[in-house]
Fold this protein.
Amino acid sequence: MSKKLITPSNIIIDGDVKDKEAGLYMIAEKAEELGISADAEETFKGFIEREQEMSTGFTDGFAIPHTRSDSIQYPSVIVVRLKHELNWETMDGQQVKIVIALLVPKEVEGNMHITLLSQLSRKLMKASFREEVMNSFDTESLFGCFKEIFE
C-alpha cells in the first residue's frame, strides 16, 4: 500500500462540533481535504448509513465510525479529540471524547475494514491504552498512540 493508514495530518485536536452528525461531517471534510475522499458528501452519507444500521459508539468515551465507500481513494484512519464530549449511542451510555474513523474504499477486496476494526477493538480493551489516548492532548502524542496499530 503506497499511502499510510494514519499520519499526523489525520489527527484533529479540539474538534469543535455540536453533535455526532457534525462530527462525522467534519471527518468527511478532513478526508476530502487530505485526498482520502473524492467527495465529502458521499463519505458523510456512508458514515450516516452505517450509524443507522447500528451505532458505532464504543465504551469509555470512544466511538469508531467506519465506512466503505466509492468516494474513498485509499484506506485511512482519522482520529479526532473532541473539544466537548458528545452524546453518541455507546455501549456503556458514556459520552464520546475520542472518535477514531476508519475509511476504506468499497473496491478493496476482503475484509480490510473488519481487520482494522478488530485490531483497534483489541487495543481499546486495554485500560492502559485508553488512558494513554485520553491523556494525549496534542497531535504528536495522539498520533503516537495509533501509529503502531495501523502501520
Remarks:
- The first strand starts at residue 11 and ends at 15.
- The chain is about 40% helix and 20% strand.
